[in-house]
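Note to self: keep these together.
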Amino acid sequence: MISDYFKFLAHQLKGWPQQNYYLFFFSLGCQVMTLVSAPITRVTVITFIGTTLGVLCVLAINAAKSVNGFLGILSALCFIIAGFSAKNYLSIAEQIAYVITLDLPVLLSANWNVNMASKIRKFNARSWTVAIIATIIVYLVSGYLIGHLTDDPRPWIDAISFSISLSAGVICFLRFNNQYFWWLASGLAQLVLWFVSYKQGSATLAMAVNSSIYLINDVLAFTISPWYNERERQRLSKEEAAYAKAMGLESSRR
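Structure:
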């Protein structure tokens, strides 16, 4: 039922590490200041909404909560508009890729949505090799194509952000905690992309601020997130198992 689904979404916003909530409100304050310090336009308002939802999305992933699928689709719509306005076309492709490889599968997969913390995995040597090679191939192909087929003024910066972020989304859906090496690199690439875009007059400062918040979140993930913190993982697994039992959900299926 719809009411049960919204109860599920509300539950997914609870039980995060306290640092995640602190970071969200810090980000919200920064984005509000960025919004009101410049002329307010349709793009700046949409960017503000997108960055707020985007921060919630990455914090949800950090906390191993599957509400990121719902938040990711909403923020992606906003970021697509911001990317089109700035002519960062691969940032649009990046958001579409997130929706296809991460957001929709998360929303549609019962296996992903029930007690995600208990299903976290780690790379082996083969996984590292495949992930790195795939990222490099996507970077070279996307950078060449976007540079030759569009008027993107920053094709290779756009491409490196796209390739790393696409790989991170796939790795995240496959439940490997190694995704955060890619998210960290993605945050750095996006920070460079949107700061250069801002300096060239193609985007608002809000997207660069948003990328810096993502970077802080990625660093936090290596310390307090269930993806890396065993104690937090055990706590969350027990909490989610109890919730699944109370709601009549199947929590043991892998």
